[in-house]
Design a protein that fits this description.
mainly alpha, disordered C terminus
Length: about 300
């Protein structure tokens, strides 16, 4: 198994960071509905530019002094990937449902494991590859019922999941080397620069209408500034697969909020696909944790 970075903190920090990550997953699941309504009244890039710029303004007074050149470069590179993920996800929300978007985004767990293998040599067992296949079967059932045409929004969201998986794998490697808040700020600042640079090229530059500001403030302060700081801090203390296990609850929250707030309803075949995806995500991450605890020799034999 590839080398892993040492983790900071003792066992008592694990329940705390697990609960914090679960809260992040709940907020992120909720925002699928919030963002879909906001971009219907504003614009995708406009919304992202204002959201991330505001998040940077919220964070900078508290953590900018901890920024180093190495942190800025590392976080900046990861932030470009984060920008790509959000562009794909938010454009996807134009033509898919909050429930579908949340469930497909939740597939980031499998890409995170694959990216860890490709980039850092972390080995995967055959069981994890099997769960990746099960997830793909579930995805096909969810987004392509027999009589349905291909949905561009679902395909864009699948690309988003691949990008988020890479972000988690990179944070697993580099977060222990940097201050959590400063690294999160560097990511968000780089993403904000990407969105601001794209803004005049794809949409008119205009202030958000009043109806959109509550969504911007919520997503900027809570889902973005606080959420990514908590994720980065957790990945200083928890390995990527445990972070992914908790964050894999995001699609469950997205489906619940989609049902309660947006009136999303799934056909029986789509429900089966969603169930396969969630079951595969949870099984893959639980098995990976068990193999990690078993040790390199026993894990390699599985």
């Amino acid at each position: 198994m590839g080398a892993t970075q040492p983790r900071v903190g003792g066992r008592l920090t694990v329940p705390v960071y697990t609960l914090l990550l679960l809260a992040v997953a709940a907020v992120w699941g909720w925002t699928f509905v919030v963002v879909q309504d906001a971009i219907a009244a504003y614009g995708v890039v406009s919304f992202l530019a204002v959201r991330f710029a505001l998040a940077v303004l919220v964070m900078a007074p508290f953590v900018a002094r901890r920024m180093t050149k190495a942190t800025a470069l590392t976080g900046g590179a990861i932030g470009v990937l984060l920008a790509a993920a959000y562009l794909l996800q938010t454009f996807g929300l134009r033509t898919t449902t909050p429930t579908n978007s949340g469930l497909i985004t939740g597939l980031f767990v499998i890409p995170a494991l694959v990216w860890n293998r490709v980039l850092f040599g972390v080995r995967l067992s055959p069981r994890l590859w099997l769960m990746a296949l099960v997830s793909l079967v579930g995805l096909v059932l969810l987004v392509r019922p027999p009589s349905a045409a291909p949905n561009t929004g679902d395909l864009l969201t699948l690309g988003c999941a691949v990008c988020f998986g890479a972000q988690i794998a990179l944070l697993d490697r580099y977060a222990p080397r940097h201050h959590a808040g400063a690294l999160a700020l560097a990511q968000l600042a780089a993403a904000a620069l990407v969105f601001v640079a794209l803004w005049p090229r794809v949409e008119p530059v205009a202030l958000p209408p009043a109806v959109v500001w509550p969504a911007i403030v919520l997503t900027a302060a809570v889902a973005t500034a606080l959420g990514f700081t908590m994720q980065t801090a957790a990945q200083r203390r928890l390995p990527a697969v445990r972070v992914a296990l908790v964050l894999s609850m995001e699609p469950v929250f997205a489906a619940l909020f989609g049902y309660w707030l947006a009136g999303d309803r799934l056909r029986p075949l789509q429900l089966a696909g969603a169930a396969l995806m969630v079951a595969a995500l949870l099984a893959a991450t639980v098995w990976h944790v068990q193999e990690e605890q078993a040790g390199p020799t026993e894990a390699a034999a599985s």
